Amino acid sequence: MLRDSRASAFSRNFAEQWLRLRKLGEMPPDPEKNRAYYQDDLETAMRDETRLYFQHVLDHNHSLLQFIDSDYTFLNSALARHYGIPGVSHTEFQRVQLKPEYNRGGLLGQGSILTATSNGVETQPVLRGVWILENLLGTPPSPPPPDIEPIEPDTRGVATIRELMVKHRENATCFECHRKIDPLGLSLETYDFLGRWRENYSKKLPIDTSGKMPDGTVIHGPDGIRKYLGQRPDQFAHCLTEKLFVYALGRRISFTDRDDIDRIVAELPKHDYGLRELVHQVIASEPFHSK
């Protein structure tokens, strides 16, 4: 799985499955209002950034925590321009060192994730929050009750998405899940529906990215969510290990897999959470050899 062309195929296919990159392009933005997105083929560029990033972490056995935060990414000139990052002039992708003022780092600063969790018109903090719970924390929320109406957009632009989401939190049926989802999703509101950085909503409405998690942790913006996730390395490692097991075994996790997953996660700190080491451990596991 880690040899030559198979390694490239693994990186591409696993990243697509784990990160739900197939969602990218399902709800494309309006071509008339977002011409650069199509002229510069930004959908492809966003996919390539994430695939190259995953491949780099794997090839160099970097810590899987670099998926949470890092000081580099891979960009071509078009995607760098989209992000507002200067100094990238080539059409070919290259590694780019990130400065704090670029407001990027890790998967949550990449356009592929931010665009795939939007609807082509506006951000969807609930989808972003659910994505984080499912794919980074391994604690997917329960499906919403069938009688709950979706959040209706404010076409007048006089209310923020936070204000529109309040009614879901006020509903006792929704409260338990939304108290986990909403702070995560709202922390990323300074990224618009195409992953561009913004300081305000339209009509200069202010963006409030603060929130409090059920455990009392207060999160402020993208840096806050990266810090929150970075303080839970074993939880993220457990989530990623489960995703790798599902991919490698071609089935859902069973009760009998739990001991192997727990053992692998317990060993990871000794190897600095190296991604390549994690993949090797999954391949060497008893469930993989007996599938």
What would your notes on this structure say?
- The chain is mainly α.
- It folds into three domains: 1-116, no CATH class; 121-231, no CATH class; 233-289.
- The protein is 48% helix and 5% strand.
- It has helices at residues 4-19, 35-39, 42-59, 77-83, 111-116, 125-137, 161-170, 172-186, 221-230, 233-249, 258-267, 275-284, 286-289, and strands at 72-75, 94-97, 210-212, 218-220.
- The strands form two sheets. A two-stranded antiparallel sheet has the order 1-2. A two-stranded antiparallel ribbon has the order 3-4.
- Strand 3 (210-212) and strand 4 form a beta hairpin.
- Helix 7 (161-170) runs antiparallel to helix 8 and helix 10 (233-249) packs across helix 11.
- The longest helix has 18 residues, at 42-59.
- The radius of gyration is 19 Å and the shape is globular.
- The chain starts with a helix and ends with a helix.
Offer a few descriptive terms:
two-stranded antiparallel sheet; 291 residues; two-stranded antiparallel ribbon; mainly alpha; 4 strands; 13 helices; 48% helix
Number of strands: 4
Low-confidence stretches: none
Helix-strand topology string:
HHHEHEHHHHEEHHHHH
Which structural class do the helices and strands define? mainly alpha
Count of individual helical segments? 13
Distance between the termini: 15 Å
The fraction of residues assigned to DSSP E strands is under 5%
Strands in their spatial order, largest beta sheet: 1-2
User: How many domains?
Assistant: 3
The description of the largest β-sheet is: 2 strands, antiparallel
Shape: globular
Cα radius of gyration in angstroms: 19 Å
Task: Please give the share of residues in helix.
Answer: 40-55%
